[in-house]
Each structure stands twice: as C-alpha cells, then as structure tokens.
Predict the 3D structure of the following.
Amino acid sequence: MQPRRQKYRRTFRAKIDMVASNGTKLSFGDYGIKAMEPSLISAKQIEAARKKITHYTKRSGKVWVRMFPYHPRTEKAAGVKMGGGKGSVSGFASPIRAGRILFEIVGVSEDTAKEAFRLAGYKLPCKVKFVRKEDEF
C-alpha cells in the first residue's frame, strides 16, 4: 500500500506522542483491535497483519483496515557517509497514536475474532487490545 501521488516526496517525521482523538471507536465492525501505545506501522506490517486475520477467519466475515500508510520513510544506502542530503524514500508508514482503532471485523464469532486479532497483534510493533462494540456504550 502506498499513496498514488504526493505533494512532497520527503516529509518531516510524524508527531505521534499524543493520544488519538479521531478513530477511537468502532465504526464498521463488531470487534476490533486498538493501539495502546504510539507507533509507526509500516505498509508491510499492515499487510502482514491483514493477511493473518484473513487467513485465520478463512475469508468469512468482512475486515476493515482503519489506517493507511501515507507517511514516506527515507533511508540512506549502506556505506554512505554522513551529509549529502536526505536519503531516498524506502517505504511508507502510518503514524498511529495511542487509542486508535487499527482493524475491525464483522460476521465472525467473538472467539474467532479474538484469536485472529491475537495473531495479527504479533505482526504489529505496538501493544494492542481487543475491543467489542457492546463494551463501548
């Protein structure tokens, strides 16, 4: 996953050390996982977690990915000395603040959703928590 086009090729680092104000409630599914700490989640990590959820649920139900990797990450080539400007874009990441819903699912049992999200949590760089729709109200 990556943006189709961008206004600027390289950006400053994202500020993620705050608590999320948007995307903290389940909007589409009955179950979800919430980030408990701030993190930069790469596009590869998002895809690995999504694949794990889809594989465990055997493609039953519907899965929503509530984040998109729009933030370019740069990297200088191996063996390059200091200076010479910023490195080239090596991939994209999604800056996640604490409390943000990452994935949602509907159409599966609670046990299946809980286990699928547990497996997906291993693929993510931050601590996550399983949340239910009925617990929010």
Observations:
- The two ends are 33 Å apart (CA to CA).
- The chain has a mean pLDDT of 92.
